[in-house]
Design brief:
The structure is a single chain. This protein has two domains: about 150 residues, Aspartate Aminotransferase, domain 1; about 230 residues, Aspartate Aminotransferase, domain 2 (3-Layer(aba) Sandwich). It has about 425 residues and is an alpha/beta fold. The chain is built from 14 helices and 15 strands. The mean pLDDT is about 95. The strands form four sheets. The protein has a seven-stranded mixed β-sheet with strand order 2-10-9-8-7-3-4, with helices on both faces. It has a four-stranded antiparallel β-sheet with strand order 11-12-15-14, with helices on one face. The protein has a two-stranded parallel sheet with strand order 1-13.
């Protein structure tokens, strides 16, 4: 069980007050979460006491090397892999463009990549552009509109012997819908395709185990799970060693060095390491018997997932009582394991931007638009009229904040 008072005390941003004196409500997590004090201290501490480039003979450079090695191990503990299978980058989008270009070296006419309408554009356009550049074909899997889940029948029809890459999201950043990526990986490997998983939206909401998923690559962004702006890329060791990485000549040719171009964001990685420390501490508060960092992280993320299902149930119940609200994604209380606490809505008679402004005026932070899930917004017929209002919760949010959202939306009706 999560200790909400302790959790909220770790995040200084949550102490902010709106003009009416009430605490600001942050339901903007899918675009980037707030960070705990430990992360802020780690970033500033790096600048104060280290702030050196790598592989030097002097002490501060050696300390940077040590911090980076520990951060790679921490990332591996989060994802369930080995430290030399994780690379840091600017963000998931940049890493995906680089990886798609490398994989594309072996593709040509007659080859196919399989994409989905449900995905963020960062897991669509890089692969579609690569396919176009190489003369390959991009196939696109449709959704089941009633719950915004991936159409598995359509996937089966489009997955075949020509498929070389399957790029699929672990959870939709617009509707919160989770996808069984492990099952898709099994089907893709049966036809000899590589599997790339976008876990950006899934990472803050539950445990990740790349070995259990059996994906070939997985990417996420640490600023979505309480850390600074960074991207992480997991790749199977043998694939990361074999693919032609686009890099400068003096860079290393083994492990992450093949994929980490230029000087990394060292201060951000120091903050990432502190964020993993926060999650591990949370896990040990949940399960004092958790020994390794990996065990503590699994305990934390499992507890977070359980609490967020309760948040999802309350959010669905509150929104369901408001006339004129259209909910997108899974709304069945019996299927909450297949969604994150992120929900996109529309309110009849009110443009999403107007709803977002109304909420902002009451100290509630929500996004409006398509959130780079443009294919989905177009497929659902809402792109031309402003997209959605997205309500995105994480584990530092509360039931009381959800009730306050419901009251604010009811005012519009």
């Amino acid at each position: 069980m999560l200790d909400l008072p302790w959790i909220r005390a770790q995040f200084p941003a949550l102490s902010q007050r709106h003009d009416d004196g009430r605490p600001v409500v942050f339901f903007d997590g899918p675009a980037g979460t707030h960070v705990p004090t430990a992360v802020i201290d780690a970033v500033s501490g790096y600048y104060r006491t280290i702030n050196a480039n790598t592989h030097g003979a002097f002490a501060s450079s050696r300390r940077t090397d040590e911090m980076l090695a520990e951060a790679h191990q921490a990332a591996a503990d989060l994802l369930g892999c080995d430290a030399d299978e994780v690379a840091f980058g600017q963000n998931m989008t940049t890493l995906t463009f680089a990886l798609s270009r490398a994989i594309g070296e072996a593709l040509g006419p007659g080859d196919e990549v399989l994409l989905t309408i449900l995905d963020h554009d960062a897991n669509f356009t890089p692969w579609a552009r690569m396919a176009s550049d190489r003369g390959a074909t991009a196939q696109v899997v449709d959704i089941i509109e009633s719950d915004c889940s991936l159409d598995q029948g359509d996937l089966g029809r489009k997955l075949g012997p020509r498929t070389r890459v399957v790029a699929v999201g672990m959870a939709s950043n617009a509707t919160g819908t989770r996808t069984d990526v492990a099952a898709i990986a099994r089907r893709a490997h049966e036809v000899g395709a590589l599997v790339f998983v976008d876990a950006v939206h899934a990472a803050p909401h539950g445990p990740i185990d790349v070995r259990a998923i059996d994906c070939d690559f997985l990417a996420c962004s640490s600023y979505k799970f309480f850390a600074p702006h960074l991207g992480l890329l997991y790749g199977r060791r043998e694939l990361m060693a074999r693919l032609p990485a686009y890099k400068v000549r003096p860079a290393g040719d083994v492990g992450p060095d093949r994929w980490e171009t230029g000087t990394l964001n060292h201060e951000g990685i120091a903050g990432f390491l502190a964020a993993i420390g926060y999650l591990a501490e949370l896990g040990r508060r949940v399960d004092p018997a958790a020994g390794s960092r990996r065990a503590a992280l699994l305990a934390a993320m499992t507890a977070i997932q359980a609490y967020e299902r309760e948040l999802s149930a309350r959010l669905l119940a509150v929104l369901g009582e408001i006339p004129g609200v259209t909910l997108y994604g899974i709304t069945d209380p019996g299927r909450l394991e297949w969604r994150t606490p992120t929900l996109s809505v529309r309110l009849a008679g009110h443009a999403p931007a107007r709803v977002a402004r109304h909420l902002a005026a009451r100290g509630i932070c929500c996004w409006d638009g398509n959130f780079y899930a443009q294919n989905l917004s177009e497929r659902l017929g809402v792109e031309s009229s402003g997209g959605f209002v997205r309500i995105g919760l994480v584990h530092y949010n509360t039931f009381e904040e959800i009730d306050r959202l419901g009251q604010a939306l009811a005012e519009l009706r």
